[in-house]
C-alpha cells in the first residue's frame, strides 16, 4: 500500500471491466477518489464503484466516449466538481477487432485510432492543463501493450495505436518533466479479461498462448493494478517516460529458444 495516494483523485478510462476495473478497484484500496469512466457497460461501472467504496475509497461513474473532446470534458468536470483536483489519469480505454488488413475499412481503422490513441491524447492534454493551472503536479499512466514492440497479425490498427501511445508517453514525459508531471506506460502481456478470456480459452488455443510466455501462466488484472499503484505513487517519483512491461516475459521472444 502507498499512503501518499490516500485522498488523491484519479480518472480511469474504460473502468467497467478488465484491466481498467482492476486498476480502479486497487485505487479504492489505496483510499483514493476515483472517477470511473464507461461507455456501454453501466452495470460494470456500478460494480466497480461499489468495490471501490467497499474498500474505503470514494467513486463516481461517468458515461463518456473518450474518443471525442466532449466525452473527455465530462470526466474532467466530474473529477473537479466532485473532488476538486486531478492527481492521476489512467488512459486505459481501448479495443480492437481482428480483421485482415486487406479487409479493414477506413471506418474501423479510424474508430480504433480515435479511442485508443486520440482519446488518450485529449485526456492527457486536459489533465495536464488542470495540473499546471492548480500547481499540483500529478501522474499520467498509459496502458499500452506488448504489441507496442511485437507486431499483431490482423490487428494493424490496434498495434499502430499502441506504438503511438508509447511515443506519446515519452514525448509528454520529456515535455513536462521539469514541471513535475510524470508520464509513464504499462504494457500488459496476455491478461485474463472479458475481452480476452485467455484462461477459459479452448485448451489447444490456451497452450499455444502459454508457449509464447516464458513464465507459462496468464496474467490477471490485479497484477497490472499492482504495477499501476506503484508507478503513480511517490515510491516511483524518479520514474518518467518509461514503459513497464508486465507480461510474464512475453517480450523476451521465447519462440527464439525453440
UniProtKB/TrEMBL annotation:
Alphabetical list of InterPro entries matching this protein: NAD(P)-bd_dom_sf, Sc_DH/Rdtase_CS, SDR, SDR_fam
**Enzyme superclass (EC):** oxidoreductase
Which PROSITE patterns does this one have? ADH_SHORT
Enzyme Commission number: 1.1.1.47
A Pfam cross-reference name: adh_short_C2
* Sorted UniProt keywords: Oxidoreductase
Answer yes or no on keyword Magnesium: no
Q: Name one GO molecular function term.
A: glucose 1-dehydrogenase [NAD(P)+] activity
Instruction: Give the family, as the similarity comment puts it.
Output: Belongs to the short-chain dehydrogenases/reductases (SDR) family.
What is the protein name given in its UniProt record? Glucose 1-dehydrogenase
| Organism of derivation | Planococcus shenhongbingii
